[in-house]
């Protein structure tokens, strides 16, 4: 499972609390002093944010959870993608002072994208002034996260009724509405658990609460509403409730064993969103959360109940979802086993790269400590030592029967949008810098490294991604370099010149022998409505039979002549002879190949690249393209004019000047959720945001990424510090002839 949240909601603090409560740590670290277990990179400690996923198996009661701390920003590259891909369930945290925030919606969509359907919501920081259980629940509905949030625990701010009257913030207890228990935390923070009475009268008389405690009259309605709501999505529970006697206490007699199976099924179907609450900082609610993670979130068997896959001797299939370097242990590859068993001291096939790999040791990593194991069975998550080539996102399979498992890579690195030149401090630093870059690209394949005319270039997904690359190079690899100018990545489209007379022959001398290779290619610009193949970065490459030609590294047999031809095509496309930019929007079909048998297939790569390069040169330089971003800017009415003018000056285009009204969808209705009264969380802080910000205007626009690298400081100046914006990638667009001249000049090509 993953913990996901808007930044500063308490993810790292909750992780520490979980580790402490499950006895992996004797004292919790703190993000505020930079001593936590999962934020272990120095770069992360400094920033106080988590940039690298960490995985820890947590044993709690009869369960083992693999806690995977996913980074929550698109610019962090492939690690976000692969970590999201590997979890089956998620705990989403909300800071209950703030309610649902922008990035809460972002991570929610990310979970949608990877089909992580089962989620639990944890309303954190209820000890803080201004925290509100009610407003947080309402913000879930207002922001349409889920139509059926279901409180399964209620907070007790204080056992002194006066504290409610005085609006004193706090969190001293919890009511478990399913098990019908109350958790009381003493002054040291130690909980004691007490069963609640099962009749209305006894409940009202109970000495678990002081007389006239305001929460007591609310407990029965909260349980009744919860059960009624659950019954709406569970026919069996509906029948159970229908069979109850007509006594107000009857709903209290329903045992947790009668509820849990239905609640679990509904959670797995994503019909309800269980809501828990507490304070990670004070360890209030952590144990209850772990209980319900165990009870409600899916196990690997729920995800793939096929017995053929679970059998210990089934063919192995595992995903390398993270690769990291450890000073003492060397390369560590984190895997999840999706079928069969991974054994130590065994050979496996990396199906994504068609390479055999030798597994030496298998480890379970408990934060700083490691336990060596002999095998990782179906469903487990662990670290592999000894792999030499495997990158984040690669698939590992059994060696036997591996050839038909030459599956496509599970995760395709997104195309790079920005690059920066890397300048080693001295000549002696060049090699270490190159080695460090190579290592980094293995841990994050969305980082690409290239040497162009003697200059070392690093390509990444955005400004923040490159910033993280920079600090990881310094902190983890300790190499000496400077970053040069940052640049967005441009593309060249295939030109429209006549290529019919380009020779399809390539000749060379090998060992004194004249060798001639013939490659029949048809190369045309991609039709406007033809979608490019993501594996070919904006192009389409087909075999003679019209089927897609997989890129070189995805062929089962690297000595397959077509694998070599594919390699050559990639190489020619990666740098056009006209501009050195990567080529885009070409439609290439390999119609025929003729070469002497005695020639080794590896010669074909160079020959194919040379022939395709001739074609691209003959077609002439096509249009240039640059990456665009989509912006959602929210500013006060008074700043709209300045913001729009600035967008125009930077090549942007306003799509909608008044997006707020339309873009704000109807909130989900309250009737299928139990919404407690506001006083349940006393204190008079600011109310959590729902659908406020009516005074603001929301502008939707697109703009070239190259013009928006410093937008946060620009918008601050334009909006008097009140503007907010959010940007996402919007693909490549053709630029005007005027802009093309600018770009070529910037690249030193004119
Ligand atoms: P992350 O960015 O989601 O990992 O959040 P952190 O765990 O780094 O927490 C951000 C800040 O919130 C830190 O200063 C924490 O001490 C604080 N914090 C986290 N949980 C709680 C909580 O339950 N109550 C209070 N009062 N503060 C908390
Ligand atoms: Mg964190």
From TrEMBL:
Signal peptide: none
One Pfam family from the record: EFG_III
Lineage top rank: taxon: Eukaryota
GO terms classed as biological process: mitochondrial translation; ribosome disassembly
Start and end residues of each Tr-type G domain: 1-301
One Gene Ontology term of the molecular function aspect: GTP binding
Keyword annotations: GTP-binding, Nucleotide-binding, Protein biosynthesis
GO cellular component, one term: mitochondrion
NCBIfam families: small_GTP
Name the UniProt record assigns to this protein: Tr-type G domain-containing protein
Organism: Trametes cubensis
């Amino acid at each position: 499972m993953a913990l996901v949240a808007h930044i500063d909601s308490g993810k790292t603090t909750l992780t520490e609390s979980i580790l402490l409560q499950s006895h992996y740590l004797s004292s919790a670290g703190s993000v505020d002093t930079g001593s936590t277990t999962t934020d272990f990179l120095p770069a992360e400690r400094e920033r106080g944010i988590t940039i690298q996923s960490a995985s820890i198996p947590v044993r709690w009661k009869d369960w083992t959870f693999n806690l995977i701390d996913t980074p929550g920003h698109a610019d962090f590259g492939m690690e976000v993608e692969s970590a999201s891909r590997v979890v089956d369930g998620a705990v989403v945290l909300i800071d209950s002072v703030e309610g649902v925030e922008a990035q809460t919606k972002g991570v929610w969509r990310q979970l949608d994208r990877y089909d992580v359907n089962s989620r639990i919501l944890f309303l954190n920081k209820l000890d803080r002034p201004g925290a509100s259980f009610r407003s947080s629940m309402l913000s879930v509905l207002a922001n349409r996260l889920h139509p059926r949030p279901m409180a399964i625990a209620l907070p007790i701010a204080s056992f002194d009724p006066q504290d409610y009257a005085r609006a004193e913030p706090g969190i001293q207890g919890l009511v478990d509405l399913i098990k019908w228990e109350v958790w009381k935390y003493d002054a040291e923070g130690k909980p004691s658990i007490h069963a609640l009475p099962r009749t209305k009268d006894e409940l009202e008389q109970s000495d678990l609460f002081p007389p006239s405690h305001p929460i007591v009259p609310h407990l029965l309605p909260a349980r009744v509403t919860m059960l009624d709501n659950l019954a709406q999505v569970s026919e069996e529970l509906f029948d159970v409730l229908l069979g109850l006697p007509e006594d107000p206490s009857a709903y209290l007699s329903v045992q947790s064993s009668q509820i849990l199976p239905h609640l679990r099924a509904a959670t797995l179907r994503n019909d309800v969103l269980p809501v828990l609450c507490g304070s990670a900082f004070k360890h209030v609610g952590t144990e209850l959360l772990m209980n319900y993670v165990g009870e409600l979130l899916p196990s690997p068997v729920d995800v793939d109940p096929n017995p053929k896959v679970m059998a210990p001797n089934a063919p192995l299939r595992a995903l390398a979802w993270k690769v990291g370097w450890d000073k003492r242990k060397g390369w560590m590859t984190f895997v999840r086993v999706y079928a069969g068993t991974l054994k130590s001291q065994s050979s496996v096939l990396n199906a994504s790269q068609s390479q055999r790999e030798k597994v030496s040791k298998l480890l379970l990593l408990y934060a700083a400590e490691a336990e060596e194991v002999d095998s990782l069975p179906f469903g487990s998550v662990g670290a592999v030592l000894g792999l030499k080539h495997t990158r984040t996102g690669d698939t590992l399979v059994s060696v036997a029967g591996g050839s038909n498992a030459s599956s496509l890579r599970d995760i395709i690195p997104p195309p790079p949008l920005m690059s920066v030149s890397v300048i080693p401090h001295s000549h002696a630093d060049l090699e270490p810098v190159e080695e460090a870059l190579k290592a980094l690209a293995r841990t994050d394949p969305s980082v690409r490294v290239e040497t162009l005319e003697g200059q070392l270039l690093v390509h990444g997904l955005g400004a923040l991604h490159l910033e993280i690359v920079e600090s990881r190079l310094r902190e983890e690899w300790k190499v000496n370099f400077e970053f040069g100018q940052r640049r967005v990545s441009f593309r060249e489209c295939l030109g429209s010149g006549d290529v019919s007379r380009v020779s399809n022959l390539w000749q060379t001398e090998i060992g004194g022998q004249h060798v001639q290779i013939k490659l029949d290619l048809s190369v045309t610009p991609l039709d406007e409505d033809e979608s490019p193949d993501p594996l070919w970065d904006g192009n389409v490459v087909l075999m003679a039979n019209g089927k897609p030609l997989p890129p070189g590294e995805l062929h089962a047999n690297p000595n397959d002549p077509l694998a070599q031809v594919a390699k050559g095509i990639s190489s020619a496309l990666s740098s056009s002879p006209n501009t050195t930019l990567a080529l885009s929007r070409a439609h290439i079909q390999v119609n025929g190949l003729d070469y002497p048998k005695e020639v080794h297939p590896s010669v074909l790569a160079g020959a194919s690249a040379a022939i395709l390069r001739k074609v691209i040169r003959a077609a002439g330089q096509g249009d240039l393209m640059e990456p665009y971003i989509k912006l959602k800017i929210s500013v006060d009415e008074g700043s709209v004019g300045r913001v729009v003018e600035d967008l125009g000056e930077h090549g942007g285009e306003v799509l909608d000047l008044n997006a707020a009204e339309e873009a704000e969808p109807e909130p989900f209705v309250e009737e299928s959720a139990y919404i407690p009264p506001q006083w349940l969380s006393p204190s008079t802080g600011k109310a959590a945001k729902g659908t406020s910000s009516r005074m603001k205007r929301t502008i939707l626009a697109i703009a070239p990424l190259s013009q928006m690298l410093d937008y946060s400081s620009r918008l601050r100046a334009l909006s008097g510090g009140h503007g907010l914006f959010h940007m996402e990638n919007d693909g490549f667009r053709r630029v005007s002839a005027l802009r093309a001249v600018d770009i070529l000049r910037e690249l030193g090509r004119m």
